[in-house]
Amino acid sequence: MHIVVIGCGRVGSELAMQLSEEGHSVVVIDKNRDSFRRLTRFSGKTLVGSGFDREILLQADASHADALAAVTSGDNSNILCARIARDNYQIKNVVARIYDPQRAGIYMKLGIPTVATSLWTTKQVKRWIIPSDDAIEWSDGTDTLHLVERVVPDHLAGKPIKFFNYENDVKVVGLVRSGAGRLNVDELFSQEDDIIQCIVTNAGLTKLKSVLEGGQS
To the nearest 10°, the Cα dihedral for 194, 214, 148, 96? Predict the structure, then answer.
């Protein structure tokens, strides 16, 4: 994947290095050249400038980006970058870091996933920019049952939540929608940007991935 990271602070640099080490094509944008010193394990590209500057985004090859994470220190800048990425460059997977959690609901309604600073981790931003990520949130003592969270891909929006269940290997136990979690999910239909929380067996990990990528159950 080609991924643009705007902001090279602690979070942005950690994210960029991890993505680069995983083999992704990564471009990091920051106004301060000295910020790039944090990139101690990085084989991607760095650009000095603003994440909403057209020339900078051209150099970042934003028109061909698969994902963009706006993780600067300013809420307004992050939201502006995210909206430009989504609306002007049609980047499919976009996420913005925010410091004011009260704004999260507003931006989610605009179709921009956000994560408040107090909850921000590299794992959570990767959940949005790489929806097929294989991360496991929790495993039981026998390592045979796992809790996983996955973003519902656009092509499966509208499917009943029960669609994601599979025999004795995958069971949807919770849903996060517009920043709010709920457990009464059996009669619901999925929407874009929903996060489903599933209990899965080892075999269920593979089955759930197949369902999310291909839409077959």
Answer: -40
Beta pairing, strands 45-48 & 67-70: unpaired
Question: Last residue of a domain, which of 88, 104, 129?
Answer: 129
Cβ distance 175 to 187 under 8 Å?
no
Residues 40, 123, single domain; the answer is yes
Q: How far apart are CA 83 and CA 161, in angstroms?
A: 29
Complete DSSP assignment for 130-176: STT----SEE-TTSSEEEEEEEPPGGGTTSBGGGG-BTTTEEEEEEE
| Same-domain check for residues 110 and 193 | no
Distance CA 187, CA 164 (A): 12
The helix/strand/coil state of 74 is coil
- In angstroms, the CA 46 to CA 60 distance is 9
Tokens describing residue 13? 């640099």
Largest interatomic CA distance in the chain:
53
User: Each residue's pLDDT tens digit in the chain (217 positions)?
Assistant: 999 999 999 889 999 999 999 999 999 999 999 999 999 999 999 999 999 999 999 999 999 999 999 999 888 899 899 999 999 999 988 988 887 766 766 776 677 777 665 545 666 677 667 766 677 778 888 889 999 988 888 889 899 999 999 999 999 999 988 768 899 998 999 987 788 999 999 999 999 988 988 755 5
Looking at the structure of the chain, the number of domains it has is 2
**Domain harbouring 53, CATH code:** 3.40.50.720
